[in-house]
Design brief:
Blueprint (H helix, E strand, L loop, with lengths): L5 H9 L12 H17 L6 E5 L5 H8 L3 E6 L2 H14 L4 E5 L2 H7 L4 E7 L8 H11 E12 L3 H14 L16 H11 L2 E11 L4 E5 L5 E7 L4
Length: 234
Amino acid sequence: MMNADPQELAKFSELAHRWWDPESEFRPLHQINPLRLGWIEQQVPVAGKRVLDVGCGGGILAEAMAQRGAKVLGIDLADKPLKVAQLHAMETGVTGVEYREVSAETLAAEQPGSFDVVTCMEMLEHVPDPSSVVRAVTALVKPGGWAFFSTINRNPKSFLFAIVGAEHILKLLPKGTHEYAKFIRPSELARWCRDSGLTIGETQGMQYNPLTRRYWLSGDTSVNYLVACRKPGA
């Protein structure tokens, strides 16, 4: 069984043509991308590294990492966003980034221990079995390499902010973008990481002010949060 929800794939495919419009439904991704990339590079500079972006969508993070000098492979199971990513890279002349329609689990069987850095951002809350993705990410990272995850906490505040606020009141995201039951507590993600063999490093929260329309990183992990991990080894 493929670890993917057909409805989730269809949802993002329908919006694929708007992925690179910074005023579209994907505006939050454009706004948070400098924050998450900067945080990743605080842990490990990506220049010269072989990097995998799991659930890359239209390629916003993948392309940004390539611009920093990384050799990037972006993977996803939604074909339309991948085509948008490929086209955008051609239009902008960005080199060092490739895209492939393949699951993390399949790629882990093909290329275990092949990447210095693996990112999996805003993706775990959209798959049926997120722990399987964590195991695949761990398998894909080289010994001594880094894995980065970001997702949404599961609690009343995250329901209020990420679904009621972001989707229904502020309309930052299309209605139905997220399902509360698929949100992941930091303790759950930490357990999956440890069970798969990763060592957990820094955890950061991400907050948003609707009045200033500004995002920033903080120690508050009650809604959006990011986790940096390392795979023991060389």
